[in-house]
From TrEMBL:
Protein name: 3-hydroxy-3-methylglutaryl coenzyme A reductase
Superkingdom of the organism of origin: Archaea
Keyword line: NADP, Oxidoreductase
Family: Belongs to the HMG-CoA reductase family.
Coiled coil segments of this chain: none
GO-annotated molecular function: hydroxymethylglutaryl-CoA reductase (NADPH) activity
Database matches in PANTHER family: 3-HYDROXY-3-METHYLGLUTARYL-COENZYME A REDUCTASE
Organism, scientific name: Aeropyrum camini SY1 = JCM 12091
UniProt catalytic activity: (R)-mevalonate + 2 NADP(+) + CoA = (3S)-3-hydroxy-3-methylglutaryl-CoA + 2 NADPH + 2 H(+)
Metabolic or biological pathway: Metabolic intermediate biosynthesis; (R)-mevalonate biosynthesis; (R)-mevalonate from acetyl-CoA: step 3/3
CDD domains cross-referenced by the UniProt entry: HMG-CoA_reductase_classI
GO biological process: coenzyme A metabolic process; isoprenoid biosynthetic process; sterol biosynthetic process
Length: 421
């Protein structure tokens, strides 16, 4: 990315020199230049000088840091590229997502796209996946200190009695978010307030964090007893960490996708039997996970969720809790029932990385870019599509294991065994 506002080469070199001698910090470059794209150029030149690395690939990007600086990135130098493949068509019969969808997957793992693609074929030929969002609410859990358990109990009751006042506080912060519930947790003299919000089409972390801050201020200013906010996030939310509370109460979208796979499709497409897939799921996903003390009872939810998150501009760190969940199978006559349950799928179609140009294109590919009509419907549609894609990936992996195909697939597609030309 070159100089876009006519800065002279000696000015650029001077700034590189100042970075090198320590008289200028990277965080001040945008103020010095007044242009985030030129600041990225200076940083790259500096890094190439001091490390000897060639960053021409990192420099090759369509991103405009004038738009992203202060929103999505600090100290930018360029961008990385991740291959994107598509799986599908995948038929989804949801409440919001209805039709055939091509699923974008950004990954460097050979065989992943092929795995989801074969699972999607089996599901679609069997009539499609059914998907439903069971609950929808983003959480934040401020931690408050009081001097005693009696005071903690009084504070918890006081907060619950004033939920309408707190809803008005949130209404003054955002017109898109609404306070749904408050769940107080008391440990000794400490009180966690697990606050649940609706957030429209946004994933909503910024929205709920700012709203929770205003709620804490309101409590400190209006509660008659002795209480102080210790941490705006007290880790009982729980964000970017695996936690049983998210599996039980949900965080983001609590979504289920299911399908009844016909016996002949299992034999012809997946090359195995319903009984074999059910046995693998019971022994691997359920018993194996229990023996390991895992919080998740699935084969590879994270594979599909991470690939979709990167492709569509979701918060990649939230793959941690978004990929917790359960795979369930039942043999029904000649057919196989299979479902995936994701209690904490945290997705949105506005805000964050969804504003990046390539990520927005791929959201548009799914028909969910931007805000929905009514508000919130695009994020719900997206959640149903993601869960259905996870179902496709899970079905195929279980089938590949049951048929003894797993190693062969990775040898062919993950180690250069498949060539073009």
């Amino acid at each position: 990315m070159g100089s876009s506002s006519g800065q002279k080469p000696n000015k650029i070199e001077d700034l590189v020199d100042r970075l090198a001698n320590g008289s200028l910090t990277h965080s001040r470059l945008e103020r010095e230049l007044g242009n985030a794209n030129e600041a990225a150029l200076v940083r790259r030149l500096f890094l190439e000088r001091v490390t000897g690395a060639n960053l021409s690939g990192v420099a090759s990007t369509i991103l405009d840091f004038q738009e992203l600086y202060g929103r999505n990135i600090e100290n930018p130098i360029g961008a990385v590229q991740v291959p994107v493949g598509i799986a599908g068509p995948l038929r989804v019969n949801g409440e919001y997502a209805r039709g055939d969808f091509y699923i974008p997957l950004a990954t460097t793992e050979g065989a992943l796209v092929a795995s989801v693609n074969r699972g999607a074929k089996a599901i679609t030929l069997s009539g499609g996946a059914r998907a439903r969002v069971i609950r929808d609410g983003m959480t934040r859990a401020p931690l408050l200190w009081t001097p005693s358990v009696d005071e903690a109990y009084r504070l918890a009751r006081w907060v619950e009695e004033r939920i309408e006042d707190l809803r008005r506080v949130v209404g003054g912060v955002t017109r898109h978010g609404k306070l749904q519930h408050i769940y107080p947790y008391i440990i000794g003299n400490l009180v966690w307030l697990r606050l649940t919000f609706s957030t429209g089409d946004a994933m909503g972390m910024n929205m709920v964090t700012i709203s929770s801050d205003r709620i804490c201020r309101y409590i400190e200013e209006n509660y008659g007893g002795d209480a102080k906010c210790v941490a705006l996030s007290g880790n009982m939310c729980t964000d970017k960490k695996p936690a049983a509370i998210n599996k039980i109460l949900g965080r983001g979208k609590y979504v289920v996708a299911e399908a009844l796979i016909k016996g002949n499709i299992i034999r012809e497409v997946l090359k195995t039997t319903p009984q074999s897939i059910d046995l693998v799921n019971t022994t691997k996903n359920l018993l194996g996970s229990a023996a390991a003390g895992s919080l998740s009872f699935n084969a590879h939810f994270a594979n599909i969720i991470a690939a979709i998150f990167i492709a569509t501009g979701q918060d990649a760190a939230q793959v941690v809790e978004s990929s917790m969940g359960y795979t369930w199978t039942e043999v029904r006559g000649e057919d196989l029932y299979i479902s995936v349950t994701l209690p904490s799928l945290e997705v949105g179609t506005v805000g964050g990385g969804t504003r990046l140009p390539t990520q927005r294109e791929l959201l548009a590919l799914l028909g969910v870019a931007g805000g929905g009509n009514p508000p919130g419907s695009n994020a719900l549609k997206f959640a149903e599509i993601v869960a259905s894609a996870v179902l496709a990936g899970e079905l195929n992996l279980l089938a590949a294991i049951a048929a003894g195909q797993l190693a062969k697939a990775h040898e062919l597609l993950g180690r250069g065994g498949l060539r073009v030309g």
